[in-house]
Specification:
about 220 residues; alpha/beta; Rossmann fold; two-stranded antiparallel sheet; 9 helices; globular; binds adenosine-5'-diphosphate; binds adenosine monophosphate
């Protein structure tokens, strides 16, 4: 049965950073709902226009459109043997929908590494995050700097800071995570799928712990 791994954790926990490492190591497609929304925003699609207001405020995009977008992505051939999900599901309704859509394609959620990091660390991480607008690679000015200041190691693009990484929006995103997403910790624990990982360790150590948990 095809295996789908869900990376769970608050904004700034390191889901995107770890997904880049793990997807390469395990040769799995990396599905980031945030990246899919940002792609739509860049291409000025109807979905992008709808999502923009929610993203700017640090709120969740409504379940129906988010679920439809991820379902479409998971139906592509590169996800047939499994995928690594980053940023989805974020509500109990999304988690239920994910279970149903995977059952429909002969798959299941096989493990849920939960990267936990205290709120004060999240604020520092998101405040120093720089992202490549071309390939989505993520850096931190202090903890994971690019080789050449301000340029992506992969493709040389000029790095940008995300609009929603401003302090006021970050606080709201953490509030929204606590209210709407954190119930998924118990949801997946009860299914026996949760693997807790200490996200305050080095990037390499967190990767090792996640790989140990999912193998
Ligand atoms: P998420 O996808 O969960 O929002 P990111 O992977 O984008 O989080 O990481 C947020 C910021 O923290 C980035 O700037 C990233 O470089 C940095 N970061 C990620 N993991 C660690 C770590 N283990 N230690 C220090 N900084 C980290
Ligand atoms: P991220 O890149 O995961 O931090 O997501 C950035 C923003 O995209 C979030 O603050 C939400 O507005 C939106 N978003 C991403 N994933 C989801 C999701 N699963 N459900 C609802 N909104 C989402």
């Amino acid at each position: 049965m095809a295996k789908y791994i869900v990376l769970l954790g608050p904004p700034g926990a390191g889901k995107g950073t770890q997904a880049q490492v793990i997807s390469k190591d395990m040769n799995l497609a990396h599905i980031s709902s945030g990246d899919l929304f940002r792609e739509n925003l860049k291409n000025q699609t109807e979905l992008g226009k709808l999502a923009k207001g929610y993203m700017d405020r640090g709120e969740l995009v409504p379940d129906d459109v988010t679920i439809a977008m991820v379902k479409d992505r998971l139906s592509r051939p590169d996800c047939q043997d499994g995928a690594l999900l980053d940023g989805f599901p974020r509500t109990p309704a999304q988690a239920e929908a994910l279970g149903a859509m995977l059952a429909g394609i002969g798959g299941e959620v096989s493990s849920v590494p939960y990267i936990h990091v205290p709120a004060e660390v999240l604020i520092e991480r998101l405040g120093g995050r720089w992202t490549c607008p071309t390939c989505g690679h993520v850096y931190h000015e202090k903890y994971n700097p690019p080789q050449a200041a301000g340029k992506c190691d992969k493709d040389g693009s000029t790095l940008i800071q995300r609009e929603d990484d401003k302090a006021a929006t970050v606080e709201n995103r953490i509030r929204v995570y606590t209210a709407q997403t954190s119930p998924l910790i118990e949801y997946y624990r009860q299914k026996g799928l949760l693997a807790e990982v200490d996200g305050t360790q080095s990037i390499e150590q967190v990767s090792q712990d996640i790989l140990k948990a999912i193998r």
